């Protein structure tokens, strides 16, 4: 299982979501790729003020804050 977190280094919500994902990562064993949107103009255009955005492939799981219920549902589906 692989999830992607679109992130900004200076964003406190981004850091909070990354930290909140750690227990889920330990429990479910998924890999988490953290991508700083500011390193790619196309990602800035796509996500800009939505960060943090947690994705599984092309499917958005949540943005701004971790939606634990939605994450649990996605992990159960792909697990």
Question: Your description of this structure?
Answer:
This protein is of the alpha+beta class and 79 residues long. It has a domain at 1-35 and 45-58. 44% of the residues lie in helices and 27% in strands. The protein is built from 3 helices and 4 strands. The protein has helices at 12-28, 41-47, 68-78, and strands at 2-7, 31-36, 53-56, 59-63. A 4-stranded mixed sheet has the order 2-1-3-4, covered by helices on one side. The longest helix is centred in the first third of the chain and has 17 residues, at 12-28. The chain is globular, with a radius of gyration of 12 Å. The mean pLDDT is 96. It holds the Pfam family Glrx-like. This is Glutaredoxin.
Strand count, sense and barrel status of the largest sheet are: 4 strands, mixed
Strand coverage percent: 25-35%
Read across the widest sheet, the strand sequence of neighbours is 2-1-3-4
- Average pLDDT works out at 96
The number of helical elements comes to 3
Q: List low-confidence stretches.
A: none
Helix content: 40-55%
Protein name: Glutaredoxin
Pfam families: Glrx-like
InterPro entries: Glutaredoxin-like (IPR008554), Thioredoxin-like_sf (IPR036249)
Organism: Rivihabitans pingtungensis
């Amino acid at each position: 299982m692989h999830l992607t977190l679109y992130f900004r280094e200076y964003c406190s919500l981004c850091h909070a979501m990354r930290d909140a994902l750690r227990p889920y990562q330990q429990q479910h064993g998924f890999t988490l790729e953290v991508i700083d949107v500011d390193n790619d103009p196309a990602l800035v255009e796509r996500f800009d003020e939505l960060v943090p955005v947690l994705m599984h492939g092309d499917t958005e799981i949540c943005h701004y804050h971790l939606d634990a219920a939605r994450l649990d549902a996605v992990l159960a589906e792909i697990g």
